[in-house]
Amino acid sequence: MEAFSRSVETDGALIEWSVRGRPDAFVEVVQRHEVAVHGFLARRAGREVADDLLAEVWLRAFAARGGYDPAHADALPWLYGIARNVLREHWRASLQAAEAPAPDVVDPWDEVNARLDSDARARALTAAVRALPASVREVLLLVAWEQLTPAEAADVLGIPQGTARSRLHRARTALRLALGEEGPCRPNTHNLSTRTR
Question: According to CATH, what is the number of the domain 8-106?
């Protein structure tokens, strides 16, 4: 049996092989992305829930691999899309079980607070992110937390790339305004008097 090379084969090629009678090729895709997909789930639902949901993501990805376009070398945006759908179903089920409204997103702000300079800034940032419309917040979180490009975030969300870039711009603008930071179009005037020529 031919061994798979981590550095040579793309996710698309591995998934194609798994569809064409080599289901073990899919194991390499799982190994490449299991940490990232688990992190995606954990940041939105907590570690314990993520542990449970991760298996469902892999089962669905394996079942849906026949519809994957092998021209896409990196399967991570596709996997994030599946994980997002699994999360939505989990939240819907939790809502029905608890008969209480589920949050749009569970934000891991306790971990973020430790890295921010001040508690007040952390509260302002948290409030600003939560105040964003859900569609805008999703793009921001995919780019900021998951390190996706706006184009990859568009793939995950099933929206045009221009829409993702526009939503990301709106999110960044709203956060700058909420935090009182200088934007790219506003000059930083408080340092003009101290400049040397």
Answer: 1.10.1740.10
